[in-house]
Amino acid sequence: MDGHSGQADPRIFLDTGAFSSMRERLFARSWQWMGDLEALSAPGSFEASLLLPGWLDEPILAWRGTDGTLRTFLNACSHRGHAVGAGRGCASKLACPYHARRFDANGTCLGQPFVESAGFPGDGDALRKFPSHESAPWWFAAVDPGWDVGDWLEPFLARCGHLPLADLRRDDARVSEYVVDASWVLYVDNYLEGLHIPFLHGGLDATLAFERYRYATFARSTLQIGVAAEGEPAFDPPEGHPDHGLRVAAWWWWLWPNLMLNVYPWGVSVNVVIPESPTRTRIRFIPYMFPGCVRGGGAGGDLHRVEMEDEAAILSVQRGIASRLWRPRPHLPVHEDGLARFHALLGDVLGTT
Ligand code: FES
Ligand SMILES: [Fe+2]
Fold first, then answer.
1. Which ligand does the CA of 121 lie closest to?
2. Domain end among 141, 164, 188
3. Tell me, what's the pLDDT at 21?
4. Are residues 295 and 327 in the same domain?
5. Ligand 1 centroid, distance to 327 Cα (angstroms)
6. Nearest ligand to the C-alpha atom of residue 312
7. Could you give the number of structural domains in the chain?
8. Closest C-alpha among 242, 239, 238, 256 to residue 346
9. At CB < 8 A and 24+ separation, what contacts does 102-106 make?
């Protein structure tokens, strides 16, 4: 620590003990972006997946009841733990493939062939539930949430909720994954400041009026606003919007701890950051298009190039901060307010502030 409030020493995340304690203390308490609702719209539709694959690995079954309510269950049978649902489908009841214990879409156990026992099935035989939340076009889930999902999403929805988010459609051909041999903390640090754009991202910089770049910081999220250079694609936010009068090339949102929602005139690029080890991070890119839009130029025109430029810098930083001589300095004002917020939240989790 350097004495500056909210400044956690990022080297702590190279330590295996601190890294693995974050899995339970932070990620198991966090809200996670789970995907979109496209396959879950009809009554009875279900989808089996993992909550944060490769890191939390919680088997989850999202299942829309005949009453229209989406419920999310631990996808582990109350008998001996086999997955009840697989892939996607539509059913009012599911039978576990192992010994055929049956459940309805409320998670209630309906019985099991060849089993007759006093009190069976009882309440304890129901599927266990995960807290979940729908905000079209996406859904979110948590194991044991440490904060309110509505408060968490509120700044994003207040700023971008006027856009036709519910009509976004996943661009399957462009879904991609990156793996970088660096700490997830450095990946997020890099995302949270725009100060490097003029130096690292020549292509992106040319689409922006960088002198008008701005930031906003919220309790568990941050926003960066890229203002478009002359002639570049941009939003013109309506009257009464906090950014009315700006030609917005991008709203770049980070939601604590590992979600990025990058809003461009063509759509939204969702990034999910998944820690794999203290020095290895997987990042999923899931692009969504607004109706009738095609991916063009502008700030969101060449995301792969920007990602490669960022990853090269992050790898260099990973080597630098691993040195025995390197010491962290206080975060810079304005451009690093988001990093300060991120590190204050990390410090709260790890008890270092
Ligand atoms: S584990 Fe599901 S019926 Fe046995
Ligand atoms: Fe960057």
1. 1
2. 141
3. 87
4. yes
5. 54
6. 2
7. 2
8. 256
9. 103/127, 105/44, 105/46, 105/63, 105/64, 105/65, 105/66, 105/71, 106/65, 106/71
Task: For residue 112, give the ligand 1 atom closest to its CA.
Answer: 3
> Ligand 1 pocket: which of 74, 75, 77 to mutate (most atoms <8 Å of CB)?
77
Distance between Cα 101 and ligand 1 center (Å): 6
- Average pLDDT on 261-287 reads 97
Instruction: State the residue for tokens 């922006």.
Output: 208
- Is 3 domain-assigned? no
**Residue 85: CATH number of its domain:** 2.102.10.10
197/203 Cα distance (integer angstroms): 9
CATH code for position 343? 3.90.380.10
Residue 133 has pLDDT above 80, yes or no: yes
Range of the domain at 129: 32-141
Residue 108 sits in the same domain as residue 246: no
Nearest CA to ligand 1 atom 3: 99
- Of 141, 159, 186, which residue is a domain's last? 141
14 found inside a domain: no
Label each residue of 328-341 as H, E or C: CCCCCCCCCHHHHH
Residues 286 and 253 in one domain: yes
Indicate the top mutation candidate among 74, 96, 125 to test ligand 1's pocket, ranked by most ligand atoms within 8 A of CB.
Answer: 96
The ligand placed nearest to the CA atom of residue 84 is: 1
Examine the domain organization and report whether 109 and 166 are in the same domain. no
Structure tokens belonging to residue 9: 């020493």
**pLDDT value, residue 11:** 64
User: Which residues lie below 8 Å from residue 89, measured CB to CB, with a gap of 6+?
Assistant: 45, 46
Closest residue to atom 4 of ligand 1, CA basis: 99
Q: What is the pLDDT of residues 202-237, one digit of tens each?
A: 999 999 999 999 999 999 999 999 999 999 999 999
Distance 92 CA to ligand 1 centre (A): 18
Taking the C-alpha atoms of residue 181 and residue 276, their distance in angstroms, rounded to an integer, is 10
Lowest mean pLDDT among 8-22, 54-68, 275-289: 8-22
Do 196 and 300 share a domain, yes or no? yes
In the predicted structure, residue 4 carries a pLDDT above the cut 50: no
Same domain, 101 and 56: yes
21-59 pLDDT tens trace: 899 999 999 999 999 999 999 999 999 999 999 999 999
pTM: 0.95
Residue 8: pLDDT band (50, 70, 90) is: low
